[in-house]
Each structure stands twice: as C-alpha cells, then as structure tokens.
C-alpha cells in the first residue's frame, strides 16, 4: 500500500507516492534490532540514498544503525514499531526532501566539501537555498554525499586541472596549433614509487604524521555520536585492553578514554561487566585502582557500580546471591562505595538493571550489612554527643580566661561487642 510522500496532503490523487514503511523486529535481549525491509523502495521514492533515512532514525532514537548495501538490509538497533518509524520518516521528509517554497519532493542535495554546507535545489519551482546543518544527520551527509552530486566534485577537479594546464603553458598559442595528439611515453617501472605504501609500517608512519588539528576533529566527531554509540566505543576500548593483557596497567588510559567520550559516570557499569565474575572478591582487590579513578567522590558513578553489581548477581546468581552482604562490605572497605550511597540504594528497590523479584532478593540479602551501617552511624553520632557532654567549663577567680577540662566517662560493666560482618 502506498501513501503520499507529503502526508499533510490528503488528496488521494496526489502525484508523489511512496510505499508504506515495513519494519521487522529480529533477535532477542541485547541483540534485538529492527530491519526496515523496504527501505530501498522508500528511499527511491524520496530520491535519497537509503542510508539517509536509516541514519535519521538512529539520530532521533539514539540508536546504532547498520547498512548492508549488498543485501539491501538497513537496520536500526532496538525494537521499534513500523507506525512510529513512519511518523519519524515524515520528519525526515519535511527537513531533507520537501521544497521549502512549493512543498514538492523534487529537490536535489548539493554538497560543498570546502565550506561544509549542504545546498538544496528544487526542479519543480527553481528554488535554491541552504539546509540547516545543525541536525546530526547533516554531519553524516557531508561525509557521505549523494551519488547524483558527484558532478560538483568533478567540476572541482576540472578547475584544478585547468589551473595546472595554465601553469604548465599547455593552453599557450603553440599548443593550440597542433592538431595531432602526442602518444604518451612508455610507462617506466619507476612509476610504482608514486604508489602509496600499504604496509603496516607505512600506515603507522602516516598515522603519526596526522596533525594535532586532525586528531582533534576525530575526537569532536566521537562526541557528536549518541550516548549508546559512545558507550559501545568505551566498552570496545576496555575489552581490547583486557584481551591484549594490558588491562592491569591501563587504568589511566581507561579513565582518559571515558572522559574523552563523556561517559565517566557510566564507567563502573562497563568495568564491572568486563572485569568482574563469580570471583569478584579477589577482583575488587586486583582492579581497585581502576574503579577508584571513577568512583572517588563521584556518587553517580557509585550508583552505576551498584547497578553493575546487580547485573553480576543476575549472571552468577547461585554463587553471588548468598554473598551479597560480604561483597558490599568489600566494596565499602575499598572506598568504592560511600555509606550514604549504599543507604539510599537500600531504601528503594529498582528494576532498572534486574527484575523486580531478583532486586528484592538482593536487597533482602543486603539487609544485615545495611543494618550494620545504620547502627555504626548511630554509634558514631552517640559518641560525638558523649564527648560534648564530657567537656566541663571551670571558672577560676584568679584567672581571666575560661578553661576547658575533659572528664573521662565511667566505663559500663557491659560494653557492646563489635559486629563481625564476616559472620553475617
């Protein structure tokens, strides 16, 4: 079934039609994705490459996109309904297809790589203007210009060739008098020296020659990506360090990468997934420095660490669920979790990371440790009050100043025993 390209036009005899978007959800869990089955046909009706509307969906939804041009598969990560994507497609059409003057979808896009601008011309009314390049999709379009805009690139090359010809004198008077075209010289084997080396060493040298400005542009480009994309980049970075055996000494590099991608608070969530398993108690000691770089004086990062801990309990439920209070104390003793963060977490059961039922079980198992924390806090407050009560003010008539004297409290016969958290 076809629909009007401009769906604000209700005329059933409207000239510009496109097929209704068909979406198919595949996979389960973290691997779930939505395949847009007829994206090629939809894009053809809009006179745009199929990558553009697919990438637009990714920008709007904050999801990763995949393009398999050989098999005509265009994918948006996550589960999305066809109607929702169809409504979102209207936004793409309004911004990147319809003419601002006549509202007809007969426009072409023209890329100016030097000025980093996107021109828009209408074949119906003759309108010519510029697109607003603030949308994230514009960055993608500038890097992947439409094929029908290759003429502008050719014109640039022709201009350069003409300039070179003038410099070499090929457009001089004598050159115009020759009717015969000289045959090209025989190709020497030495011309291979002009070819670009493709060895690993040559590639490494070229990478080192990249200017700091170009590196800065790459960093900025990563920041323009969605949060999910940046988290995935950070995940792959840490995983690569772990797989290569360089993870132990890479704590500073990992922190720098998280700060570069602006995902520092979420760092402990990714680290706990990659560095912890059922042997978490030993691993807390091993990777304490890594987690401290994220969690020290950062309560948001500590909350993400608790979320990562819940996910870990879900994976190794049999081994870790009975040991929840002991592991929490290990994290507390390692200064990775602060007291108020743990107490705030204990107040509310959340299903953000695990099911409601499992979250309740985890909180129930953590109750002895939470109770111990609360009692320790009350004891510390009580001891502070006692210290204040033990201070007496002594007035001496022979002195001009007040003197403070501390009296020792009488020892009670039955002092409270310390709570052994390991016995919980």
Automatic annotation (TrEMBL):
One of its GO terms (biological process) is formation of cytoplasmic translation initiation complex. Residues 224-383 form the W2 domain. GO terms for molecular function: eukaryotic initiation factor eIF2 binding; GDP-dissociation inhibitor activity; GTP binding; GTPase activator activity; translation initiation factor activity. The keyword Cytoplasm applies. Residues 152-168, 201-210, 400-414 have a biased composition (Basic and acidic residues). Component of the 43S pre-initiation complex (43S PIC), which is composed of the 40S ribosomal subunit, EIF1, eIF1A (EIF1AX), eIF3 complex, EIF5 and eIF2-GTP-initiator tRNA complex (eIF2 ternary complex). Interacts with eIF1A (EIF1AX) during scanning. Interacts through its C-terminal domain (CTD) with EIF1 or with eIF2-beta (EIF2S2) (mutually exclusive) through a common binding site. Interacts through its C-terminal domain (CTD) with the CTD of EIF5B. Interacts with FMR1 isoform 6; this interaction occurs in a RNA-dependent manner. Component of the 43S pre-initiation complex (43S PIC), which binds to the mRNA cap-proximal region, scans mRNA 5'-untranslated region, and locates the initiation codon. In this complex, acts as a GTPase-activating protein, by promoting GTP hydrolysis by eIF2G (EIF2S3). During scanning, interacts with both EIF1 (via its C-terminal domain (CTD)) and EIF1A (via its NTD). This interaction with EIF1A contributes to the maintenance of EIF1 within the open 43S PIC. When start codon is recognized, EIF5, via its NTD, induces eIF2G (EIF2S3) to hydrolyze the GTP. This is Eukaryotic translation initiation factor 5. It comes from Cyprinus carpio (Common carp).
């Amino acid at each position: 079934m076809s629909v009007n390209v401009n769906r604000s036009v209700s005329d059933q005899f409207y000239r510009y039609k496109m097929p209704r978007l068909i979406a198919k959800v595949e996979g389960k869990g973290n691997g779930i994705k939505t395949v847009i089955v007829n994206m090629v046909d939809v894009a053809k009706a809009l006179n745009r490459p199929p990558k553009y509307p697919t990438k637009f969906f990714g920008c709007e939804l904050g999801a990763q996109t995949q393009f398999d041009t050989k098999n005509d598969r265009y994918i948006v990560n996550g589960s999305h309904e066809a109607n929702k994507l169809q409504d979102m497609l209207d936004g793409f059409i309004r911004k990147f297809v319809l003419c601002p003057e006549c509202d007809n979808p007969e426009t072409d896009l023209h890329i100016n790589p030097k000025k980093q601008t996107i021109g828009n011309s209408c074949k119906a009314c003759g309108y010519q203007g510029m697109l607003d390049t603030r949308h994230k999709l514009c960055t993608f379009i500038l890097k992947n210009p439409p094929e029908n805009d290759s003429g502008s690139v050719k014109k640039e090359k022709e201009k350069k060739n003409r300039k070179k010809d003038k410099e070499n004198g090929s457009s001089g008077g004598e050159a115009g008098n020759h009717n015969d075209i000289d045959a090209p010289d025989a190709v020497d084997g030495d011309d291979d020296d002009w070819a670009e080396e493709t060895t690993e060493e040559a590639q490494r040298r070229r990478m080192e020659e990249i200017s700091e400005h170009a590196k800065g542009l790459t960093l900025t480009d990563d920041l323009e990506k969605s949060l999910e994309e940046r988290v995935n980049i950070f995940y792959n970075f840490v995983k690569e360090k772990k797989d290569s055996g360089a993870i132990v000494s890479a704590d500073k590099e990992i922190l720098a990468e998280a700060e570069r991608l602006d995902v520092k608070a979420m760092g402990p969530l990714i680290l706990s997934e990659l560095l912890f398993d059922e042997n978490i108690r030993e691993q807390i000691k091993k990777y304490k420095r890594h987690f401290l770089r994220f969690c020290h004086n950062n309560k948001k990062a500590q909350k993400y660490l608790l979320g990562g801990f819940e996910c870990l309990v879900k994976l190794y439920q049999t081994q870790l669920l009975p040991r929840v209070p002991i592991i929490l104390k290990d994290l507390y003793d390692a200064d990775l979790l602060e007291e108020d963060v743990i107490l705030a977490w204990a107040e509310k059961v959340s299903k953000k990371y695990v099911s409601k039922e499992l979250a309740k079980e985890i909180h129930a198992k953590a109750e002895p440790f939470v109770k111990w924390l609360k009692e320790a806090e009350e004891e510390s407050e009580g001891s502070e009050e006692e210290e204040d009560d033990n201070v007496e003010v002594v007035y001496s008539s022979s002195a001009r100043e007040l003197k403070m004297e501390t009296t020792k409290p009488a020892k009670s016969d039955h002092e409270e025993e310390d709570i052994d958290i390991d016995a919980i």
